[in-house]
Amino acid sequence: MSTWSVFAWLRFLAGGVCHQIPSHSLQVGGVPLPLCARDTGTYLGLIMAMAAILALRRSRASLLPSRPLLAILAGFFLAWAADGANSYLALLGLAHAYEPSNILRLLTGTLEGIALLLLIWPVAAFTFWRQPDQRRVIRGRELAGLAAAAVLVTAVASQPWPLPRYVAGLLSGLGLVGMFALLNALLLAIALHREGSGEKPADVLRLLALALGPAIAELVLLSLLRHWLLG
């Protein structure tokens, strides 16, 4: 299966949650990535934060970041919202603070995705594991490293190099599916009364695998609904 056919499937799956405006999307050879630049950043950020949690062996960490770090994460959300509002005003032809760019969309989206995962994961760890760790999911220097990685990823992906953009498109699409699977797994754990039942990684992976089907089905239904409403 070619990269373009994979992109076509990911683009269809993302159609119900992303506007996919070509001018707001990174492109390779004139073909937009499956998600707009902001959403590409969001789901890349989710993947980056999850990779950091696994690398730091914090998969069972059930405590939110400290208050100073929560303030920084709130700043990431505010930057994402402010840039989105500015971009929307420009799209409508209204007065806006600065000229929007896909570089800013990608950067603010990546920071927001990092913040989102770091807030959701302690809840997930508390829900999934029988004995969650009483540790914070991230610390100051680690968050600084993630923010620096977000800047680096933005700098690389903003260049017109095909390979990094292919990778960004694929990872962001996987991040979208993974996020829906994670949320569905949380709901399944509660519905099946399996909260706090995980003792080994296989237990959690089994629950995530069970949630994958509903996650894809929801994305398909959302995309079909958008196509039915908008053509």
- The assigned structural class equals mainly alpha
Largest sheet: 2 strands, antiparallel
Task: Work out the count of structural domains.
Answer: 1
Work out the strand percent: under 5%
Distance between the termini: 27 Å
Task: Explain the overall architecture.
It is built from 7 helices and 4 strands; from the N terminus they run H-E-E-H-E-H-H-E-H-H-H. The protein has 231 residues and is mainly alpha-helical. It has one domain. Helix 2 crosses helix 6 and helix 4 packs across helix 5. Helix content is 70%, strand content 5%. Strands 1-2 form a two-stranded antiparallel sheet. Strands 3-4 form a two-stranded parallel ribbon.
Chart the SSEs and their pairings.
Blueprint lengths: L2 H12 L12 E2 L2 E2 L4 H19 L5 E3 L3 H25 L10 H27 L4 E4 L3 H18 L4 H30 L9 H30 L1
Helix pairs in contact: 1-6, 2-4, 2-5, 2-6, 3-4, 4-5, 6-7
Protein traits:
two-stranded antiparallel ribbon; globular; mainly alpha; 231 residues; two-stranded parallel ribbon; single chain
